[in-house]
């Protein structure tokens, strides 16, 4: 599938008006779901004890949104530059019978 610049701009404009994108939390204090995890991350940042984090969960639960809010909180909203990439990993599962 080939996407030209015109199609890409139309998709971006279309995505801009989705409800989830419009009301997406931008700060950790704005989270309603997973608020306990957001507050825990906020305390970790405020205490300067940031370590490595692994975010896991089903698609659509807010992992990426929480990561972006975490980065904005830690480094400031003007310093965060991120690009959205998706990589697929094919894992082989071996089972012993």
TrEMBL record:
Against InterPro entries, the record matches this protein to: DNA_Rep/Repair_Clamp_Loader, P-loop_NTPase
Q: Which GO terms describe its biological process?
A: DNA repair; DNA-templated DNA replication
GO CC term, one of those recorded: DNA replication factor C complex
The stretch of residues making up the signal peptide is none
A GO term, aspect molecular function: DNA clamp loader activity
Which SUPFAM superfamilies does this chain map to? P-loop containing nucleoside triphosphate hydrolases
PANTHER family under this entry?
A: OS10G0574500 PROTEIN (PTHR11669:SF52), REPLICATION FACTOR C / DNA POLYMERASE III GAMMA-TAU SUBUNIT (PTHR11669)
- Identify this protein by name: Uncharacterized protein
Which organism does this sequence originate in?
Answer: Lactuca saligna (Willowleaf lettuce)
The uppermost taxa in this organism's lineage are:
Eukaryota, Viridiplantae, Streptophyta, Embryophyta, Tracheophyta
């Amino acid at each position: 599938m080939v996407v030209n610049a015109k199609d890409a701009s139309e998709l971006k404009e279309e995505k801009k008006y989705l409800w989830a994108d419009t009301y997406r939390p931008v700060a950790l204090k704005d989270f309603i779901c997973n608020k306990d995890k957001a507050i825990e991350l906020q305390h970790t940042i405020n205490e300067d004890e940031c370590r490595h984090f692994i975010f896991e969960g089903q698609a659509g639960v807010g992992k990426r949104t929480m990561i972006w809010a975490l980065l904005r909180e830690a480094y400031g909203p003007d310093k965060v530059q991120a690009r959205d990439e998706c990589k697929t990993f094919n894992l082989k599962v071996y089972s012993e019978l």
